[in-house]
Design brief:
about 180 residues; alpha+beta; 8-stranded antiparallel beta sheet; 8 strands; globular
Length: about 180
């Protein structure tokens, strides 16, 4: 049994290597079956946590109008500080740079993303809750790198997410 690790940006390509088969295999079976088929093991039923090769991810079952299952691995997180605006600004600047670095690290592995941009920008998939996003559409869904920060005082996070529903997340082909 591997000890669970907190991945960092140096682990980004390993995490993507573990998640890419979930997109490539087609949408056969439910999310749990697909995770198990690719070596992920359920470690906490209540929180829907799964692990593989020392990394942990969380399954978010489709609850909304599009019934989408997403599996998310947090690669890096820093706590926010509601009482220190300078800390929040420094974290924001750091995570903008880390996100850009992450996209560059993944280009040789995944190719050019179909979309890179910020929330509110034309072409940003409205069903994805992130501040910044790089999306690779493939197979049965898509894989994306995202920078999230829900609110002041909450963590800044770099996450890799696999959309397991087989949706076409890219709506405008000219975004490449």
């Amino acid at each position: 049994m591997h000890a669970l690790v907190s991945p960092g940006m140096d682990d980004l390509t390993r995490v993507v290597g573990l998640l890419s088969p979930l997109v490539a295999d087609g949408a056969e079976g439910d999310a749990e079956q697909r995770l198990a088929r690719h070596g992920w093991r359920l470690t906490d039923v209540g929180r829907r946590l799964w692990s593989s090769q020392g990394f942990a991810g969380q399954l978010f079952p489709g609850l909304g109008r599009d019934d989408t299952d997403q599996f998310e691995v947090t690669v890096l997180a820093r706590p926010g500080d509601v009482d220190d605006g300078d800390h929040e600004e420094r974290c924001h600047e750091e995570f903008v740079a880390l996100f850009g670095d992450g996209v560059e690290r993944l280009r040789p592995v995944l190719g050019e993303p179909g979309f890179v941009g910020e929330a509110g920008q034309d072409g940003f998939p409205e069903e994805i809750d992130a501040a910044m996003l790089a999306l690779w559409q493939a197979g049965a869904g898509g894989l994306f790198l995202a920078c999230t920060h829900e609110d002041s005082g909450l963590p800044f996070r770099i996450v890799v997410v696999v959309d397991l529903a087989g949706r076409q997340l890219l709506r405008v082909a000219s975004l490449r």
